[in-house]
């Protein structure tokens, strides 16, 4: 902030009347009082800003956690479906293997029967 006393002394030293110097110093202080921010003003503003940022971060974190939970549930459902699909494929492969063995044994028996 501006030191009124020091400003008025400087004005008096430069040749101005003491009353005029004090008047100018007072007017100058009043004019800039509402314009300049003090350290306390800045600290309050920083505290509010920091608080707002922390709240926004907490909201974002909660949203991210919800999204991750949804993705995890979706992945679990997809994995369960894949497990069911793999079980179906495995059953189909076993049937085909059984059919191939039966066919192979039938062909082998037919060849042995036809041999003179």
From TrEMBL:
Keywords: Membrane, Plasmid, Transmembrane, Transmembrane helix. The keyword Transmembrane helix applies. The chain crosses the membrane at residues 93-112. It comes from the Bacteria. This is DUF1640 domain-containing protein. It comes from Acidithiobacillus caldus (strain SM-1).
């Amino acid at each position: 902030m501006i030191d009124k006393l020091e400003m008025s002394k400087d004005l008096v030293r430069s040749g101005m009347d003491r009353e005029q110097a004090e008047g100018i110093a007072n007017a100058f202080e009043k004019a800039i009082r509402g314009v300049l921010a003090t350290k306390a003003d800045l600290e309050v503003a920083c505290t509010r800003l920091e608080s707002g940022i922390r709240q926004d971060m907490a909201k974002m974190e909660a949203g991210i956690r919800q999204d991750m939970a949804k993705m995890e549930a979706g992945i679990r459902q997809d994995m369960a479906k894949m497990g069911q699909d793999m079980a179906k494929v495995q059953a189909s492969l076993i049937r085909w293997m059984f059919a191939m063995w039966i066919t192979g044994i039938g062909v082998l028996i037919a060849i042995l029967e036809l041999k003179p």
